[in-house]
Amino acid sequence: MTEPLKMRNIGPKSAAWLRQVGLRTEADLVAVGAVEAFMRVRRAGFKPSLNMLYALEGALQDCHWQDVPEARRAELVAAVEAATAELPPPRGRPAAAPVTTTHHQDEGAMPAPELLDRPGGDD
Length: 123
Prior knowledge:
This protein has helices at 12-20, 26-43, 50-61, 70-85, 113-116. It has 123 residues and is an all-alpha fold. The longest helix is centred in the N-terminal third of the chain and has 18 residues, at 26-43.
C-alpha cells in the first residue's frame, strides 16, 4: 500500500483537494508537479489561492512555502496563467430567472385584500 500524502506545507484541506483530483501520494505529486496539481484542483471547481501553488512547490523542494524564491514564484504564476489561457472558455450558462416569492394560503383562510380587488380574485 502506498503512503498517503503527508508532505511539508500540505494541510488537511489541501490534501483533501489533492485526493479528490487523484493525487494521493508524494509520488503522484512529484509525477505531475506543482503547476499541474494546482490546475487540477482549480479545474475541479475549487478556489485555491497562490499560497497553495507555493506550498506545493515548497513541498516538492522540501522547504517552507515562504522560502520559495521570488523568481521561482514568478515562474510558477506565469505557468499557471499560461495553463489557464489554454483552458476552454466556461460553458455559457443562462442567467438565473428572477426570484419570485409565492405565498400559499391555508384552506379556509381569507384571501389577501389585494387579491379580492382583482378580477377573479374571489372565485
